[in-house]
Automatic annotation (TrEMBL):
Organism for this UniProt entry: Nonomuraea corallina
Keywords of this entry: 4Fe-4S, Iron, Iron-sulfur, Metal-binding, Oxidoreductase
Lineage: Bacteria, Bacillati, Actinomycetota, Actinomycetes, Streptosporangiales
Domain of life: Bacteria
Pfam family, one: Molybdopterin
Protein name: Molybdopterin-dependent oxidoreductase
Length: 729
């Protein structure tokens, strides 16, 4: 007997619906795209297709591990939690709460546990030492959006299905399947744009698969997108092409700033000819429905926040902000419109380097400093949840050494790997199929409003869910007892009944609580958020609830994106802040960089369709072939430097010997190495056979984007030389 079940793929931001067949033993016998999913319509990629393999990976941890000295042993859950309680008590008794740190990795954006329980955990730990993969990724976008629109999550997404022109910088959705733009079958949507007569332009130091699909590919020197975008802004003003559809503050300041960046000047720095910059500006202005979209290549760069800001400056100046076919603000089903004060960054600063807080976090680029530098507030204990910063943080090799010096570390992770090998206790979450799934974070960036809930497909048989693991850690850290979910639900309801327009203003908390459904605390909290949300049972005209999503296992289409800027804006002025002072200050840094002598060779990253950061290399069918850790380099550089099959790459921070992959798809003067490789000390047997090297042995933690403190991975100066020839004598 087999059964057919449906669930959302948790492996990337595209949130595809999957249809799985399970045999009697709960083993996955096939995975297909769910054709009845109104959003993904049957799309699937090789990673989704191997979800069963990942789910049943024999190297996944099933029980907690405790390390005693250099030896690991399996332990029961109570024993493991008791060890954590002891570790936390000892360290905080000796060094106080600020000696505790937490690092949250990328999969937290894909789990219900991450979305619902990390907030309470951080609060219970009572520390400002909060770090996450966000400061190695999209923090510049949060900061730019926070300053312009008043909220760090007010991130407009390109309206892919209606745009007639798309300028894409530093993104490669044919490999990544999209980011901060939730769009299952991103490739199909780009092809549709072209089929309806639209134009796609890709700006990238590599001619990627996305660039191959585009009408035009423009090579750009790594790290210079802010100059290119300023050149476009300059042209829009100079040629009187500005069309504003919204009230804004700071138009004059933007015009004045742009005066320093005429196309012929920025052409030298960016490598993009002035006439191309001018033409792009004209095309954007003339296209009608046009969007500029930029992603990781432009974020993890020296001027990441300026680039993210300028993307939306161009969108605003061309009249494309908040209009169909331009860039728009999704309306997710769990959005609860609580008011917040104006957005600020740098409310506090890191102890050692004085780097700014952003979104309540400190930059991961300074995590090693905070662990290694003695004094009041030195980190002695680290909690990691779904993160592998030894491979993902800038200069991860230093972090590797720093983690070895901690007094105590606990990791919530399914694998013993490069990071969790330093833990004293590893708490593994259950299998994917034993976990419920709702995309709290990613549905807020979807190109169509949509919701889908996947209940757990298999029972837990004894072990805690990831939600329960994090809830128990929270209770240990707070010293309180009781039911965390009930506490959170009580707080949210108390706030909602006092909030004008919440739909439940003035109602009785206990009566509302009794209306919530769900088998687990996480499900009841989802039900509450859905009911309070904009389509919810408790909102005017709505009927959404957990029950309704359970009745629609393929997901629910909630309609195309609609203009909603006034609802989204949270700035003190109530209008779009086009020239936030913090960013104008950083323009001085950008100006100073105009005349900088570019390094002869610079390093950038890349992603492969069958990979996923550091943790999918243990699935046999996904690794090998083109998914290997090679250094892409232009053949002209190979010849110029006299290189053979491999070469030595040196940066200010490290040195690697890497196999070369000569290709004219990469600009001369630029080399590309994927991150997330360099497997060692891990329980992952397949990954160990495809170890590769870590790109973050070369990246530099001292280089950050100033306003956000974000890591800089693209444009790292390197030198490349032949491997030493060892003679036979
Ligand atoms: N040089 C360079 N470095 C980069 C980047 C780059 O482009 N170039 N990209 C950056 C970006 S965008 C990101 S997001 C970061 C990622 O940085 P991290 O999040 O630190 O790294 P990942 O490799 O995603 O590690 C995820 C960890 O979560 C575990 N895991 C997987 N599923 C689950 C789960 O369901 N629950 C739990 N608890 N754990 C789980 C995995 O075993 C793994 O240990 O890397 C950054 N680093
Ligand atoms: N298959 C796969 N999918 C993934 C991931 C994965 O590891 N593998 N990771 C997920 C994560 S965590 C994220 S954040 C997203 C990222 O999603 P994307 O942003 O689409 O990521 P990439 O595919 O790395 O594309 C970034 C592009 O930027 C280019 N680039 C590098 N430097 C510069 C620069 O200075 N300027 C410009 N204009 N371009 C530059 C690179 O050549 C690359 O083609 O992908 C997610 N999806
Ligand atoms: S594109 Fe992303 S969400 Fe869709 S099947 Fe592939 S990994 Fe899963
Ligand atoms: Mo990311």
């Amino acid at each position: 007997m087999t059964s057919t079940v449906h669930r959302t793929c948790p492996l990337c931001e595209a949130v595809c619906g999957l249809t799985l067949t399970l045999d009697d033993g709960g083993h996955v016998t096939s995975v297909r795209g769910d054709r009845d999913d109104p959003f993904s319509k049957g799309f699937i990629c090789p990673k989704g297709a191997s979800l069963g393999r990942l789910d049943e990976d024999p190297d996944r941890l099933r029980r907690p591990l405790i390390r005693e000295g250099g030896r690991w042993r399996e332990a029961g859950w109570d024993e493991a939690f008791a060890a954590v309680e002891r570790g936390l008590a000892e360290v905080t008794a000796a060094h106080g709460r600020q000696s505790v740190a937490v690092y949250l990795g990328n999969p937290n954006a894909h789990t219900m546990a991450g979305a619902l329980y990390n907030g309470p955990l951080i609060k219970a730990l009572g520390t400002r030492n909060v770090f996450s993969a966000s400061s190695a990724d999209q923090m510049p976008k949060h900061v730019a959006s926070g300053l312009m629109f008043g909220h760090p999550l007010a991130i407009p997404v390109p309206d892919l299905d209606r745009a007639d022109y798309l300028l894409m910088l530093g993104a490669n959705p044919l490999e990544s399947n999209g980011s901060l733009c939730t769009a299952p079958d991103f490739p199909g949507r780009l092809k549709a744009l072209r089929r309806r007569g639209g134009r796609l332009v890709v700006v990238d130091p590599r001619r990627t698969r996305t660039a191959e699909l585009a009408d035009e590919h423009v090579f750009v020197r790594p790290g210079t997108d802010a100059y290119l975008l300023f050149g476009i802004v300059h042209t829009l003003f100079a040629e009187d092409l500005v069309t504003l559809a919204h009230q804004v503050n700071g138009l004059d300041e933007v015009r004045e700033s742009a005066e320093h960046f005429p196309p012929d000047v920025v052409a030298r720095r960016t490598g993009v000819p002035a006439e191309v910059i001018v033409r792009l500006a004209r095309e954007l202005a003339a296209a009608g429905r046009a969007a500029v979209y930029a992603r990781i290549g432009t974020c993890t760069a020296e001027f990441g926040t300026l680039a993210q800001w300028l993307v939306d400056v161009v969108n605003t100046l061309t009249g494309n902000l908040d209009r169909p076919g331009g860039v728009m603000f999704p309306k997710p089903a769990t959005e609860f419109a609580g008011r917040r004060g104006p957005y600020r960054v740098g409310r506090w600063r890191s102890r050692v380097r004085g780097l700014p807080e952003a979104n309540g976090e400190l930059p991961v680029a300074t995590l090693a400093d905070e662990i290694e530098t003695p004094g009041e507030g030195q980190i002695k204990l680290l909690v990691t949840v779904a993160g592998n910063p030894v491979l993902s943080a800038p200069h991860g090799d230093r972090l590797d050494r720093a983690l070895a010096g901690l007094d105590f570390m606990v990791s919530v992770d399914p694998y013993l790997n490069e990071t969790t090998k330093h833990a004293h206790v590893i708490l593994p979450p259950p299998r994917v199929l034993q976990s419920g799934h709702y995309d709290f974070a990613l549905l807020g960036f979807a190109v169509r409003n949509y919701a889908r809930y996947s209940p757990p497909l298999l029972p837990l048989d004894g072990q805690p869910s990831e939600a329960q693991i994090l809830a128990r850690l929270t209770m240990i850290a707070s010293g309180a007892d009781g039911d965390l979910d009930e506490f959170v639900i009580g707080q949210m309801l108390a706030k909602a009944v006092e909030t004008p327009g919440s739909g439940v203003e003035g109602r009785d908390v206990a009566e509302l609580r009794a209306l919530l459904e769900g088998d687990t605390g996480a499900e009841r909290r989802l039900d509450l958020m859905l009911k309070l949300g904009p389509y919810g049972e408790w909102a005017a005209g709505g009927d959404l609830s957990l029950r309704k999503l359970l009745d629609h296992p393929h997901g629910l289409d909630l309609g195309p994106l609609e203009p909603r800027l006034p609802e989204v804006l949270r700035t003190a002025s109530g209008v779009v802040e086009l020239a936030p002072p913090l960013l104008l200050e950083d323009v001085d840094r950008l100006r100073a960089g105009l005349d900088a002598e570019p390094a002869e060779m610079v390093l950038i990253g890349r992603r492969h369709l069958r990979s996923n950061n550091s943790w999918l290399h243990n699935v046999g069918p996904l690794v090998g072939g083109s998914n290997t850790c090679t250094l892409q380099i232009n053949p002209a550089d190979v010849a110029r430097l006299g290189l053979g099959g491999e070469a030595v790459v040196r940066s200010a921070k490290g040195e690697l010997t890497v196999p070369l992959e000569p290709t004219d798809t990469i600009m001369p003067g630029v080399v590309s190495l994927p991150h997330g490789w360099g497997h060692q000390g891990s329980s992952q047997a397949v990954a160990a056979k495809h170890a590769g090297v870590s790109a973050n042995a070369l990246t530099d933690e001292t280089a950050v984007d100033v306003p956000s403190g974000n890591a800089v991975f693209n444009g790292v100066p390197v030198t490349i030389s032949p491997t030493r020839v060892i003679s036979a004598h």
